[in-house]
């Protein structure tokens, strides 16, 4: 009497665990799918490219602003910032012309403050670490006699990524009346 | 749970250890499925069933929560402003909106003393919303003068950058060259910077806002 009862009991009791097993499988499957979904999102090339674009723009806008800001009372800090924001040829130009430029500004006793109105990346080569930006800028110059003049300018910048940071390698005004381009 | 205790205790007594000892240990590692049968028998001597159920439930909970965590993180990555902005990441859409907007600006801001009609016609298809109202107001004010002073204006988008592109909305920075001439005077070229908001309607980008920079 005992034996069949014992045999039957486990088999019957096993059934409530089938849903539990199914639940575990579903949970495991869900977790695996979600994990792979996350992995896909985290390793999305387009997202990485977008992040580089935004980093390049932020660095470009900041650098353009830095290079248009200079206070004759605090020349060293301003010019250090210029050098820190640039790389390549532009950096060399600024470094070699630093003393002469400092003398000019000291004499003119001007304070220039720049504000970025808008900026956009027009080209980005993520692998080569090169980008081009457009920046609309308003520069306020306060002369020695206290008069203030606002000047809006449109700048074209070229950025190069050095040691993981985007820095300006070329900067100029967008030419007026020149040949059309991108 | 509680009600099954006495019979199970009895069962444990009767089950011989020899047959089951090996199976028990191998089954222990198998979790939900394997543990079930075994736990019935062993419960009298160990906290097995409760513990195993708790562990199993915990594991399921961890898997589900972990899955939700992954999904949430993936959603955050995708809806992150950087990833949503398709400027440059979608090259085709980017050059299309830049082209459409550049062309539209060139057309609506180019006219001859005799032909503001063409510019205004272009404006009707290329502008919408606030930009359309601004443009209409501007033209109502200057139309007479344009003809009287024989002003010719030609506009060219020299550089167009897409700041933001998200589905059917885009924000652009456009550098314009505007060459104007009054009567027989020499032409003068002026630079202009605009931020433009555009919206995709019926597969066409229309400018809804223009802000001078």
From TrEMBL, chain A:
SUPFAM superfamilies: NTF2-like. It comes from the Bacteria. The keyword NAD does not apply. InterPro entries: NTF2-like_dom_sf (IPR032710), SnoaL-like (IPR037401). Keywords: Membrane. Residues 69-170 form the SnoaL-like domain. It is found in: Membrane. This is Nuclear transport factor 2 family protein. It comes from Streptomyces werraensis.
